[in-house]
Design goal:
heterodimer; A: about 350 residues; alpha/beta; Rossmann fold; 2 domains; 8-stranded mixed sheet; 4-stranded antiparallel sheet; 13 helices; B: about 650 residues; MetI-like fold; about 50% helix; about 10% strand
Chain lengths: ~350, ~650
């Protein structure tokens, strides 16, 4: 983005809380005070392991998960509890691409029947204009213009994901939530789809909320990254800062655990894993830092007090009582090759 | 493992679906159509009045005048069947209309919207199931004497809750599909979603239910008439005709036949149409996911399993390492109609970890399964050799394999939770395996199971042993499976995508565990993975597979620093972790892996390869030695550039 123009806020999530379970079952906090902003034209990555709440946050933004408290504003409008009619109006600007390329298309409808749906809601087009819009979009996502007449089963996983992207972009949305959009794809196909998303963003100026468990994919796609653990934000910052100079022990663990596709560097990185990774103590912490029971730097204060999100020593915003210690340890273990070495 | 690939749909786009083209279905449709048309056009079809008595003609057999004969009053049986159809079919229509209107509406709303409405529907259904239908209908008939319509409407009403519960279940299943969420996000109204997405998906099973219910309703209607509770004489009805025929069966065995046969034909037709619709649904939904075992047209020339010349003379002559624990040579796997893996060759030393890497559909898993003799139904090894400690396993009997599995070669899979029996504790499952491999007492086996759980670094082995599989996390379940795999003290462990379903931090722990087991026990590991990072982390050497062939084999560092096959290079380069710059366009390979049965004659990768020449496409390419222990199935190995190092690694520290 042009640094001269001030960033325009597209999505703002404030202090979002989402709970599942209760009143008789134990309560799971899928989101526990999450705040984040997506600006126009940028990509924000949401990364974390299973149970981090990343998918739930995306679902809540789309109105598919119940919000307990907090607010979600889209283009300045509070959509936290938007009515169905309002949601319908917003959906022209807010779209989604799901993970499962097999489940996300209705197997009994042709591609054209699927792609025409967003048009039925938002635009009054004649039959021939609809057909033209569909063919153009299919071409744009790298498929044959004639693909519309076929059924999902006739396409490979990568092609189906292209169709899902086409459906999301039929109405020229401003924000697309990509929920593990490439996780089910093979490496060479994943690269094709990532390239397509980047090209479309450059052409159309669309913003992405890019949700994934894969830090390397998130880093490649995002301007900024939000690291989640058990419904809490651990660290937020520029993609490069998060990846190269992580200040939160959890971000560091996540990075060190992602194997580097280079045997020499991976050998070095393993040494850092052995230092930094600690098996989880039984029981999830209910007070203080959620990561305390797995953290190599945890002390009494970590269990007693919730660390607030505050600017850290490496340019990111971190929720940790011991960022200085963590950053120091990560640096001196510089062997964590693909990551630590770059802090120099 | 399902090996499936798409074929064109079995029907022409605008043609009649295959399930409806079956002769028996066509006959059933014709019979019903005939009965309906006949009932509507009755006066045009028969000159006889169904209720006028011609006593002189009583008890006649079929003749030129009375095609189906006559009854005890000399009434024409054909005319009575045609006119009687009006009564019976209208009755069926009344019942089905009520059944469908109430059941479908209530069910679809209950399933999609849920809430209080759903509870009420389910509650009403529970009550309706408890009511004896016959008695209710007889009571109705006692109130509305001889009113057939009242009885049939009541039958529809009583059946509707059953349909509602069925529709509710089907709707809930469809509702959970991601494409429903996508439609909601698209802004479709609930009514639109119900009509466009839910209704078409549940239509076929609902029509099957309706067809079956129609059969039941017809049986019920004719039953009431047979008992004289419905249509009253002399009005014609099929049930009453059977009843009349039965009265005179001693005198005239024919009279009961026409109406009886028509009733049977009509009911069977309803059921056959229901079956056909069910099959039609299968056709469309699985839309030609055809198992490899099925015949694939147009691949006759490619079905030959072993291609001569695909192994270079050097490779063929390379001696089997005497210390190798496992040696696979020229292994071919396929079905009767198509090859799946061609000429796989590799060997494994004790303590070594060999990575098999490639995308889905390249034959990695099939190669792994072939080693342990667990290929899926319809797939077999067609030639080559699998030597385990000098014993030939290719072509071994199930019994011979039994002696090797677990105690010689063990396996862990991608879905640890699915590989454990949910109804037994972890401890019981390990003890069972231990006792199969050794003659330990139950107590000794239990002690051994705890030491195995400790060996896979599970804290509190005794506590874990008491747990059931659903009480384990994914990482714990994979550790338990490794413990079970170790119970037979195997020399080789085949790990098929062992960490793909796990979180990255858990993956690091499992890979670390496998590494230490190799050094502690000299365990040799075959690690199947699509993830170059995992391969770089754990393997001593790597085997790259593409479309059923080993395209490259080399020591691990050589594969990464100097790949000699364009596919290995392209696959590595498309990894975002190695990208020169974030948010840059990744070097990607166009197209996708050709499916089984559609491999080209020459190099399988040629169509997607940047360095391909005509020579690549002409003939099969041999696996050739290009450097020390470095084999490639490429005739332009020097054209392959060295990959960029993960960026920006060259920055040194300090």
């Amino acid at each position: 983005m042009d640094p001269a123009t001030p960033a325009e806020e597209l999505l703002r999530i404030d202090d979002l809380r989402i709970e599942f379970g209760g009143p008789r079952r134990s309560v799971v906090r899928a989101a526990d005070g999450v705040s984040l902003v997506v600006n126009r034209g940028e990509t924000v990555g949401l990364v974390g392991e299973s149970g981090s709440g990343k998918t739930t946050i995306g679902a809540a933004t789309l109105g598919l998960a119940p919000v307990k408290s907090g607010s979600i504003r889209f283009r300045g409008e509070d959509i936290t509890h938007a009515s169905t009619a309002r949601r319908r109006a917003i959906s022209a600007q807010l779209q989604v691409i799901f993970q499962d390329p097999y489940g996300s298309l209705n197997p009994s409808r042709t591609i054209a029947q699927t792609l025409v749906e967003p048009l039925l809601v938002h635009r009054r087009l004649g039959q021939s204009e609809q057909a033209e819009a569909i063919s153009t979009m299919l071409e744009r996502v790298g498929l044959d213009r004639s693909a519309g007449a076929r059924y999902p089963a006739q396409f490979s996983g990568g092609q189906r994901q292209r169709i899902a992207i086409a459906r999301a972009l039929m109405v020229s949305p401003e924000l697309v939530i990509c929920d593990e959009a490439v996780s089910a794809l093979d490496l060479s196909v994943q690269a094709q789809v990532l390239n397509l998303l980047l090209t479309l963003q450059a052409d159309l100026g669309v913003s992405y909320l890019f949700i994934s468990h894969d830090l390397s994919v998130v880093r490649h796609m995002s301007d900024r990254i939000v690291v989640l653990y058990r419904g809490r934000i651990m660290e937020v910052g520029d993609a490069t800062d998060i990846h190269d100079r992580p200040a939160h022990p959890y971000t560091q663990t996540l990075l060190a655990a992602s194997p580097i596709p280079d045997p020499g560097e991976q050998r070095q990185q393993r040494e850092f894993i052995e230092l930094s990774m600690r098996p989880a103590m039984p029981g999830a912490p209910v007070t203080g830092c959620r990561f305390a029971n797995r953290c190599p730097f945890a002390t009494a204060i970590c269990v007693a007090e919730d660390p607030p999100l505050a600017p850290g020593p490496t340019g990111t915003t971190v929720a940790c009582h011991h960022t200085d210690v963590a950053v120091q340890a990560f640096r001196s273990a510089g062997g964590a090759a693909g990551t630590g070495a770059r802090t120099a | 493992m399902a090996v499936t690939f798409a074929l064109p749909r079995p029907t022409a786009r605008n043609g009649v679906p295959r399930a409806l083209r079956r002769p028996v279905t066509i006959v059933a449709l014709c019979i019903l159509a005939l009965l309906i048309i006949a009932a509507i056009a009755a006066p045009l079809l028969t000159p006889f009045n169904p209720v006028s008595n011609e006593l002189a003609d009583a008890f006649q057999l079929p003749s030129g005048k009375h095609w189906l004969g006559t009854d005890e009053f000399g009434r024409d049986l054909l005319a009575r069947i045609i006119y009687g159809g009006r009564v019976s079919l209208v009755g069926v229509a009344e019942a089905v209309a009520v059944y469908l209107a109430l059941g479908l509406t209530a069910g679809i709303i209950a399933g999609y919207v849920g809430g209080v409405f759903e509870s009420i529907v389910v509650w009403i259904a529970d009550v309706a199931f408890a009511l004896p239908q016959i008695i209710v209908v007889l009571t109705i008939l006692a109130i509305f004497a001889n009113d057939s319509s009242a009885a049939m409407l009541a039958l529809g009403l009583l059946g509707a809750p059953g349909l509602a519960v069925f529709v509710r279940g089907a709707t809930k299943t469809v509702r959970a599909e991601p494409y429903i969420s996508a439609a909601r996000v698209s802004g479709l109204r609930t009514a639109q979603i119900l009509i466009r997405h839910i209704l078409p998906r549940i239509a076929s099973p609902v029509i099957v239910q309706v067809a079956l219910f129609a059969g039941t309703a017809l049986l019920f209607q004719t039953g009431l008439d047979f008992l004289g509770l419905g249509t009253q004489p002399p009005a014609p009805s099929w049930g009453a005709m059977v009843s009349d025929g039965a009265n005179y069966i001693g005198k005239d065995t024919w009279m009961v036949m026409p109406a009886g046969i028509v009733i049977v034909l009509a009911i069977v037709s309803f059921n056959l149409i229901g079956d056909a619709l069910q099959d039609l649904r299968g056709d469309r939904v699985s839309a030609s996911a055809v198992s490899v075992g099925a015949a694939i047209p147009g691949t006759g020339a490619l079905t030959e399993q072993h291609i001569p010349g695909t192994i270079s003379p050097e490779r063929a002559a390379a001696p089997v390492s005497p210390s190798a624990v496992l040696s696979v040579r020229d292994l071919c796997i396929g079905t009767d109609s198509a090859p799946i893996v061609r000429n796989a060759t590799f060997s494994l030393e004790p303590g070594e970890c060999l990575g098999i890497v490639g995308e889905s559909g390249c034959g990695k898993t099939m190669t792994a399964l072939a080693i342990i003799g667990l290929l899926p139904e319809g797939v077999r090894t067609t030639s080559g050799s699998v030597l385990f400690r000098g014993t030939e396993l290719q072509g071994a009997s199930e019994r011979e394999y039994g002696a090797v599995r677990g105690s010689g070669i063990a396996m862990i899979s991608q879905e640890p939770a699915a590989s454990l029996d949910p109804s037994f504790t972890v401890g019981d499952q390990i003890v069972e395996v231990i006792r199969r491999h050794s003659r330990l007492s139950r107590a000794a086996a239990r002690a051994e199971s705890l030491s195995l759980l400790a060996q896979v670094r599970l804290p509190d082995p005794a506590g874990v042993a008491r747990r059931f599989p659903h009480q384990l996390s994914g990482g714990m379940a994979q550790r338990v499976l490794i413990a079970i795999a170790l119970a037979g003290k195997p020399a080789v462990l085949i790990a098929d995508e062992p960490t793909t379903a796990l979180d990255v931090t858990v993956q690091a722990e499992i890979l670390e565990l496998l590494r230490s087991l190799r050094t502690e026990m000299g365990l040799a590991v075959v690690l199947v993975s699509h993830d170059w990072g995992v391969i770089a982390d754990s393997c001593d050497s790597a085997l790259v597979m593409y479309a059923g062939q080993v395209v490259e084999e080399a020591p691990i560092d050589a594969v990464f620093t100097r790949p000699r096959h364009p596919y290995s290079y392209a696959l590595m380069e498309s990894n975002p972790q190695r990208a020169a710059e974030t948010r840059s366009i990744l070097p990607s390979v166009p197209g996708s892996v050709p499916p089984v049965g559609q491999w080209p004659v020459g190099c399988h990768f040629a169509a997607r390869c940047a360095f391909a020449t005509d020579a690549c496409r002409e003939a099969p390419i041999a696996l050739d030695l290009v450097a020390d222990q470095h084999w490639t199935r490429c005739i332009h190995p020097t054209a392959v550039p060295s990959p960029a190092l993960p960026s920006p690694t060259t920055v040194s520290e300090g």
